[in-house]
Amino acid sequence: MNRINLVGRLTADPELKYTAAGAAVLSGTIAVPRNFKNAQGEYESDFVRYKVWRKSAEIFANYTHKGSRVAIDGRLEIGSYDDKNGNKVYTADVVVDQFDFLNSKSESTQRPATTQQTNIDPFANNGQQIDISDDNIPF
């Protein structure tokens, strides 16, 4: 079984990209605090790379930013490549299947808006009568 669950804070604003085939992909690093103190009496963090794909990547990018507290669940993917000196470099990434946004309400409202918001109430009475026949009611 290859499952990993992490709770931490994003180290940078997510950057959404698209593959040549048009699939959305997002990668970044999450800082996960350790549950014990070091010799200096301080808590350290592990910095774990993650990837989110497709529609989930778009949702993740729209609702998170640097410092967002998130829980991620996925599988560990190990990869490797040869660097410019010919040395093999191993990588470890969490490929995220599920995530939860854990910011408090006050933290969530501090995020700058990335889209223009309007104060239009879609349910406001605009003075026109709404005609709903019995044929349109599903019960």
Textual characterization of the structure:
This protein has two helices and six strands; from the N terminus they run E-E-E-E-H-E-E-H. With 139 residues, the protein is mainly β. The protein has one domain (4-115): Beta Barrel (OB fold (Dihydrolipoamide Acetyltransferase, E2P)). It has a five-stranded mixed barrel with strand order 1-3-4-6-5. A hairpin with a 5-residue loop joins strand 5 (69-82) and strand 6 (88-101). Mean pLDDT is 84; it is low at 110-118.
Give the SSE order as H and E letters.
EEEEHEEH
What is the overall number of helices? Answer: 2
Task: Specify the CATH architecture.
Answer: Beta Barrel
**Main sheet overview:** 5 strands, mixed, barrel
Uncertain spans: 110-118
Roughly what fraction of the amino acids lie in strands?
A: over 45%
Q: What is the CATH homology-level superfamily?
A: Nucleic acid-binding proteins
CATH topology, anyone? OB fold (Dihydrolipoamide Acetyltransferase, E2P)
Number-wise, the strands total 6
Mean pLDDT: 84
Number of domains: 1
Radius of gyration: 22 Å
CATH class bucket:
Mainly Beta
Shape: globular
Summarize the SSE layout with pairings.
Blueprint: E1 4-10, E2 15-18, E3 24-37, E4 43-53, H1 54-63, E5 69-82, E6 88-101, H2 105-109
Question: How would you concisely characterize the structure shown here?
Answer:
The protein has 139 residues and is mainly beta. The protein contains two helices and six strands, in the order E-E-E-E-H-E-E-H. The protein has one domain (4-115): Nucleic acid-binding proteins (OB fold (Dihydrolipoamide Acetyltransferase, E2P)).
